[in-house]
Amino acid sequence: MGLVHHYPALKRLQTPTCSVCIANYNGDALLVDCLDSVLAQQGSDCIEIIVHDDASTDGSVRLLREKYPQVELLVSAENVGFCVSNNRMANHARGEYILLLNNDAALYNDALSTLLENARKQHAPGILTLPQYDWITGALVDRGCLLDPFYNPVPNLDPERHDVAMAIGACLFLSRKLWIDLEGFPDWFQSIGEDMYLCCLARLQGLPVQVTSSSGYRHRQGISFGGNRVSSGTLQTSFRRRQLSERNKCSTLLICTPTAIVWPLWLLHQLLLLLEGGILTFLKHDRRIWLEIYWPTLKHVHAAMPALKARRRQVQSKRQATLTDYLSAFASAPQKLRLLLRHGFPTIR
Questions:
Q1: Strand-pair category, 153-155 with 72-76
Q2: Tell me: the pLDDT tens digits for 116-126?
Q3: Which residues, at least 6 apart from 115, have a Cβ–Cβ distance to it below 8 Å?
Q4: Which domain CATH number covers 203?
Q5: Residue 192, φ and ψ in degrees, nearest 5
Q6: How confident is the model over 312-339, as a mean pLDDT?
Q7: Residue 235 backbone phi and psi in degrees, to 5
Q8: Does the predicted TM-score (pTM) go above 0.70?
Q9: What residues contact 268, with CB distance under 8 A and at least 6 apart?
Q10: Using CA atoms, how far apart are residues 276 and 287, in angstroms rounded to an integer?
């Protein structure tokens, strides 16, 4: 799997401060808002923009070549997924910092200057994000996320809290050196949860994961991968998204949870997944829920157990954070239970 084309920018900066990396698949209806928001940034002359097109079948490549010749365009020969797309762009980037930005997101005008200012104030080079706002309503979605005991993201809405468990991958900012040190996203994650994994690795090493107190970005939630949003009072998701989410959360829990607490937590999590899958399958009268979400998840994590344990040993050998510090960004209440009580069972399509 490789790139079939590489279209260089008309004039490449010799030393860009920041490389803005945008993964795109069939996003010709989204890219204008996204790219125009980057080009409108204060100090945009210090930015290079890289777009990885993941074998789109729409007019994305033509739009980028004709309207945005200043963009560094990487065109994939075949669809490789979000993780590989971002890894390729990060490998191609030359900036001191990297901003991973979804094609369905748009930055506030002072977003990059705010991120750079906050990055230089961190006690150690870490990961940053901006407050996220809903594209349509403008309502605050989150200020980064905490995690529940089973690694489900819990939106942080506290304006006084800046240390969080994870930065959403729709807008994730870090130094290129740290990206290299953390080894980027695991290719096999494909999509969903890779942002959580990267942030957990950073926090295990005692590095900050934070949200800025000002600026922000607008996001069309769920557009780029389907689902993960509330519509008409019901949580909407897709079979593919849910399966990747459950699989990758299981893997992150096993690899990143410090000390021996991982094993009772792992056992409880597997039992709860069995129960959850059985109940949803029964109540929805849909065997696809079990066959396409829960069975593949349980099958994968147990088949991959030797590899996951090996990766756990590598990750934990670099741990600098105490158990208390690592868990300081975790919420005690299970997020799935809270969502169930508020929205009922999810609609899966």
A1: unpaired
A2: 999 999 989 99
A3: 18, 97, 99, 128, 130, 173, 212, 215
A4: 3.90.550.10
A5: 80, 120
A6: 94
A7: -75, 125
A8: yes
A9: none
A10: 13
